[in-house]
Amino acid sequence: MALPRLLMRFMDWALNFDDREGVPEAIFEMECMICHAVSELCDNEGETSQLWALKHTGRHPTHREFKLLTETFWRVDPMPGNPFADMGPLRSLPRGASR
Ligand SMILES: [Zn+2]
To answer: How close is the Cα of 68 to the center of ligand 1, in Å?
Structure first.
């Protein structure tokens, strides 16, 4: 699933969608609002979470309200002219993203 790209600039820093190798575009998880059971975490596609909700309601017909939890990863990069621009790229992946 392709997510829209967003670039926000503030002073000499820019907030960017983290599109580095190994970082998922998004992680999805569905939660039942009745019993708070949750689906498995799924990278980059929400269909598995949606299927989990349908199966959950099939097993528990009165559980028909869900919350889709979505995590996306962002980073702040120095813009040209920022004294931190020479630090090079970020080395570590965000917690939860190295899956
Ligand atoms: Zn439930």
So the answer is: 13
pLDDT tens by residue, 63-76:
999 999 999 999 98
Kindly give the distance from the C-alpha atom of residue 92 to the centroid of ligand 1, in angstroms, as a whole number. 36
Distance of CA 58 to the CA centre of its chain: 27
In a domain, 41, yes or no: yes
52 located within any domain? yes
Residues 84 and 56: beta-carbon distance below 8 Å: no
- Centre of ligand 1 to C-alpha 34, Å, is 5
Q: Does the residue 71 lie in any domain? A: yes
Number of domains in the chain: 1
Task: Write phi, then psi, for 70 (nearest 5 degrees).
Answer: -130, 130
Ligand 1 center from residue 83 Cα (angstroms) = 51
Report the C-alpha gap between 28 and 44 in whole angstroms.
Answer: 7
